[in-house]
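note to self — DONT lose this again. spent like an hour looking for the file last time. sequence + predicted structure for the chain T wanted, 616 res
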Amino acid sequence: MQIKPRQHLLDIWQAMARHSFDQGEWVWGEWGGRSSVADAEQLLCLLYPATEIPAFRLDDPDTTQQDVRQALKRAGGRPDIPAGLVTAATRFMRTHTGDDQEPTFAGGHYFGSADETAEITEEQRRLGVVDSFARSITLCLATLGFLKVYETRTRRGDIRKAIAELRQMTGNRLTAAMVSLLRSFTVNAFDTESGQGRALTELLGQGRLSQRQVLGKFQSRFRPLRAALVESLFLGIDIEEGLKDESQLFECGWAWSLVRDAPEVDTGEPVGPQPEGIANPVPYLYFTVVALDGIQDLFSDRTLTLGLLNAEQQKLTEALRLRWELTQQYWSGIARFDDERWPLEDIPWRTTGQRLESEYFSLSVAAILVHDLMRRRATDDDLTRTVRVMERLAERGRITSRMTRDDPTVHELHTVGVQLPLQGSERLGPPMTWAMTDFSAQLLKRTVQMCTLSRNLASHERLLRLAEDVFDHMWRRRIRDGEGVGLWDDVHCAYPGAAVHKGRLPVSWSITERVTEVMVQAHGMYRRPPIRSLELTQQARALLSECAHLLGNEQLEPAPSDGGRHGMQLRNIEIMLRRARGLVDEQPGTACALTLDVLGQLDSLARAREAADGGV
């Protein structure tokens, strides 16, 4: 199924309008109770495309395009849509603000209990989670960009007042989310003889290297990064001492929430009292990937161009960017630790902190590697090997291969998902879990990212085919009846042998938002120049040379008495050749097509002249 970003986004928005608007008023999904993560994802399904794709802009009612208005007609008329989004965003900010008037980042119903006989406590449900911190950064930046334009387009006094209030709340939430991400970052140092140390050395050694060889190679490869972590980050005494000891291994990234005993971040912004952390200082691959995605929005071209950050937020951005870069370097180095056989190629990945293994963790490591490949100049070998990993993950995840009888993969990756234990949550009640059911959506997202990155024709073609296969799988999983029709996620539609959901099928805003995000990425991919073929470029230049010579020869001949049609045809040929010369470097295939057309026209003129000469 070909990915058509514009048409598919319009389909999603039409389904969003049916589900999320009632007589022009925004309606929150109430299944399972409220969650700051789910509410942010629901809003982002509209705000993210509206602020990233010019054709989907909603902040200037006079420029809203006809098909966009038609898709959102349930949300109201052209001037009503942006006003409704201001109201919805304001309600979000107020709902997820505590009694102390400070932003809250509760996981809510996204948290689960590891003990089937015990419900998690209300205090646990109110705990902040990295998923919410990162989503809030993306949402706040999209909201601030939206308000910056809409404020200049509306003359309604009540709307201007609401915009001013919303901007203040959004700025506060953005700062609080950035501070929380800084306090959720952690470095975990451990001895090689510990259980975690043995697990990491086995993962890196791949049965080919001894523990001593792994440690020596680890020390050599990560010595500069270890020094950068010690010198650049305020980590606390115990971690800092552990990092300085080169006989110890380490991991870095984001925990699931604020880390226990994390120092407060000194900032002049009004973020209020910074809550105590509860999470163990152990990085999680899933939350690390989520954090990396959110942080990169802080220094995107759009954020910088619109000037969405104040001076204090820019300082926090630099601190987060440093962690962003160091984390990518670390996990990219771990994924490609041995040149002959990457640990990433040994699927499924085994985590050292939680002692779990799953294709989802392989995808998480691949996602960080994709981040790193986008940041630096990737080699063709890096791309080719990563493409193969993606293809294998799609096959093992039963996306490009058939489901077997009583297939546990569908249950473990798509219906129930990977259950991630949240270490440290047991201090407030039953041990908590976090379910990851978005394997297919994440695979699609990373594949499209790599499509955008790749400038190698063979790799690009493989990635595009894989992206279309995964998208076809995702499109089949849309809900077919009920409130959420046209949205996600009905796993049974793609896997008829899977267990059928009992009762009303809830909308998964997590997966719906990720598919929406993929459409934005695909739009950017198609907006980029096509990959240039050196062979086609050489052929186009050879054709241009022949065309120029034959045209010059034709212009030497006397013009026939045809009322000037011959001269007009030659002028059109000159225009086509000028166009072909301008495209030969960027679009050699198009240049070839134009020159072939010119050659055909010149041959027709030559044959007509020969026929006339023969008649004389």
